[in-house]
Amino acid sequence: MVELAANIWADGPSSDPYEPDKAQIRAWGTFVEQNAAWNLLNVAAIGSNSIPDGMNFIRTAGYATSSDGGGALYVRLEAPGTEPWQKQSSDGAWWDIAEQQEYAAEIFGLGVGGVDTASWELAAGFITKRGGTLRVPAGEFTLTNDWSVTSTAAPFRIVGAGKDVTIFKRADTGTFAFWNIVSSSDYVIADLTLNCQRSNVAVGAGSHALRMDRGDRITVRRVKVTDYTDTGIIYFDTADAENGLHDDIRVIECECDGMNSANNGILLNNTRRGLMSFNKVINLGRQGAPQFAVQFKARNVDGKSFGNWIENCRGGVAIGSTEVASPSNVNCHSSFEIVKGATRALRITSSNFCTIHAEIVDMDEASDAGNPTEDTDEHAVFLNQVDNCVIRIGHLRGYEDTKYIVAMPTAVGCSVLIDTWRNVPQTSKFLDLGAAASGNVIEVKNYVGTRFDFMMDLVQDASASQNTFILADDVMAQRTTIASDAITIRNPAVARYRLDTESAAATDNLTYIAGGTDGQVVFLTTTSDARDVVIVYNGAAPPAGHAPLFLKGAVNRTLGTINDIVAVMFSSFANKWIEI
Q1: Within 10 A of 136 (CB to CB), how many other CB atoms are there?
Q2: Are 63 and 105 in contact (CB under 8 A)?
Q3: Is 31 within the bounds of a domain?
Q4: Domain endpoint, select from 58, 79, 97
Q5: Would you list the DSSP string of 262-297?
């Protein structure tokens, strides 16, 4: 063990002064030289200085000048360096940045005199190989090359000083992504802005802003992407199902600001426990496709989307894609979303057992300017090729005129619940039940707007199966036309049927009713005083799926005026509609 200097040069009595042991002095001097740092002004000075053999450390005061934030500690290497951040002194020795938990990007020249592109590539190459946290300072950094890395060697974090504070600007012609991270896990990108500068025509078409392809345990937090084409923040697996699912991909408190030109916001693919929460996605535009703000695209399981704020897009919150056969996603859930100015606000496609809960869905008519699909392609809810999915909307407003509030081309066993629908007013069919829709329930708890005598007249119903539409604060009524002496009941919530004769004949018979649920009560009346409907008692053997009517007194009933009413209840046990 090396003796302390105080012991080596201890004072003795004046009559017998202490003579230090030279071996102890040499040992002490060697120890000091080996553990002291050779102090230099900047990084460039390493190459112009000869460092004594006994010195194992170099400390720089800065990258270009002292106190510019780029100071670092370097350690002597035993072999020649092979990495671009390693330095050689004039005596031929090689030096490497000392291991630590955090590294300032200024060490590599970013923002303190180095060329932005070269400095960034040096810093990013270092942190993705060595691991740790790279702290990027405030400022704008222009990159003439898109950054791409594959198979990073260690967990890493790239952290800026904040959104709109640390800004990377694209200045090249653009590849498929401004930042592209492939086959890498356990990393964080946080607190910075990626400005793709797509509106600068010299930059070129470009594509994604931040693209991540394969990896687990990835977090993107407080990152803003702007002025981009294609998708702002995208995670997916180019090999699709071959690599299985990737765990714990999180996009949190981020912001995507598009160009009103067929942009997407945040997209996850092939994830398990993927999370998109408290993000802001705006200005994607509504004139192209797909323009989804927040999307679990395909092969996601147990994903969650939570508390996102979305405005001006073609698709708001989306689960699924028609590009992948059902079930594309399973058990993916979205909660407490706010969606404004979306052509198709809430959309589930080719997915099973998924839910979406939006606090506010507002068409926001001001965002319709220049939208070629205005009044022809707008749906608050769109469900296609889905089973057992649930959508709930707290406040729905702005879907009016000729827009659908719900479109279900091929939905089975799904539920749509709207707490309050503010309508000003609806003038055309608002509910589209496709031919393959079956077993679905659509309920509006509170309807605010122009009332209709027969709400079911506004249901575009092509389905031959039972689906339930309920307006909870009103008695459901429907006009229907007799065909071949029968009518069909597919909505168990409808209580009143106003009957019209086939081909507007003066008189027509109602002999059978198809459909209905056990215990369902309906009230039958005629459409006009000028048309009589004869309700036939116990008609001949009914066609398959039909039931006869049993009337009091075993006689026919004639509905001659709109004031005549017959009430019947369906008994599935007896397969009869029985007058009550």
Answers
A1: 25
A2: no
A3: yes
A4: 97
A5: S-EEEEEESEES-EEES-EEEEEESSSS--EEEEEE
Which domain does 27 fall in, by range? 5-97
Q: How many CB atoms lie within 10 A of CB 241?
A: 11
CB 350 within 8 A of CB 325: yes
Taking the chain (580 residues) in runs of 10, the rounded mean pLDDT of each run is 71 70 72 68 93 89 90 95 96 96 96 92 97 97 94 96 96 82 97 89 68 96 93 82 83 92 88 97 78 91 96 91 78 95 90 95 63 63 93 88 78 94 71 88 86 71 82 82 93 90 95 93 94 93 94 95 96 94
Is 0.70 topped by the overall pTM?
A: yes
For tokens 């404004």, what's the residue?
A: 340
CA dist., res. 482 & res. 477, Å (int): 16
Token couple for 325: 């056969």
Kindly report the backbone phi and psi dihedral angles of residue 458, in degrees, each rounded to the nearest multiple of 5, phi listed first.
Answer: -95, 15
Which of 67, 23, 62 lies closest to 46 in space, CA to CA? 62
Say how far residue 420 (Cα) sits from the centre of its chain.
25
Distance of CA 383 to the CA centre of its chain: 17
Strand order in the sheet with 494-500: 476-481, 494-500, 521-526, 566-571, 576-579, 546-550, 512-515, 486-489
Q: Residue 401 gets which letter from DSSP?
A: B
Residue 545 burial (CB count, 10 A): 12
DSSP summary character for residue 321: -
Count up the domains in the chain and report the number: 2
CB 377 within 8 A of CB 409: no
**Which DSSP state fits 98?**
P
Residue with tokens 């897009």: 313
Is residue 358 one of the residues assigned to a domain?
no
Q: How many residues does the chain have?
A: 580
Contact 178, 146 (CB under 8 A): yes
**Considering 97, 129, 150, which residue would you say is the last residue of a domain?**
97
Q: Cα–Cα distance between 521 and 476 in angstroms, integer?
A: 12
Q: How far apart are CA 63 and CA 41, in angstroms?
A: 8
